[in-house]
Design goal:
This is RNA polymerase subunit sigma. Belongs to the sigma-70 factor family. ECF subfamily. The structure is a single chain. This protein has eight helices and no strands. By secondary structure, the chain is mostly helical. The chain folds into two domains: 75 residues; 84 residues, Winged helix-like DNA-binding domain superfamily/Winged helix DNA-binding domain (Arc Repressor Mutant, subunit A). Helix 1 packs antiparallel against helix 2 and helix 5 packs across helix 6.
Length: 187
């Protein structure tokens, strides 16, 4: 570990001690009493720690706020996607809707898939999400990310291989998710 790395770690540690409580209070304005507040605050400092520490930070609170807001937007987007996928995969039961067990199982599957996708490098993950979630074509993705169409193809192959591995390790219980109200067994 170089001296610059130690210095950067010490700087981020000082920022953490000086601003963590303030950042949590600021995040509570956006998220209320959500348990995500401390997670996002901690992840903000982790991202700061992982970034290269080449220049001194003149406005630490502005930087921390910007990083935290990006994390909040990611959280909100993830929740919106989870809700959309949940609504698409589970049939509407006019009597009572999906059972709490089905909801919990599906939610856990989506969280596991999200952790799986988080293992992908940024552009590979972005390529996958732009294709599968936003429905963009390969040329549109290439233009959006500033990469070649060949890279888009390679990134999609890589992300699909990881998703296939995810499916093999965590099979989605499709029988419970695709039940129609007529085939649902009463408990």
């Amino acid at each position: 570990m170089s001296g610059a790395d130690v210095s950067h770690r010490n700087d981020v540690g000082g920022l953490f001690r000086a601003h963590y409580t303030w950042l949590c209070a600021r995040l509570r304005r956006y998220l209320g009493t959500s348990p995500s507040v401390e997670d996002i605050a901690a992840e903000t400092f982790v991202q700061l720690l992982e970034s290269p520490g080449l220049t001194p930070i003149r406005e630490p609170r502005a930087l921390l706020t910007t990083i935290a807001q990006r994390l909040i937007y990611q959280l909100w987007r993830r929740r919106d996607l989870e809700r959309q996928h949940f609504e698409q995969l589970l049939p509407v039961d006019p009597i009572g809707g999906p059972s709490p067990e089905d909801q919990a199982q599906f939610s856990q599957t989506l969280k596991h898939l999200n952790r799986t996708l988080d293992r992908l490098p940024g552009k590979v993950r972005a390529t996958f999400l732009l294709s599968r979630v936003d429905g963009l074509t390969y040329p549109q993705i290439a233009a959006e990310l500033g990469i070649s169409q060949r890279s888009v193809s390679v990134y999609m192959t890589r992300s699909q291989a990881l998703c296939a591995l995810h499916s093999a390790n965590e099979p989605l219980n499709r029988t419970s998710l695709n039940r129609t109200p007529q085939t649902r067994r009463s408990a």
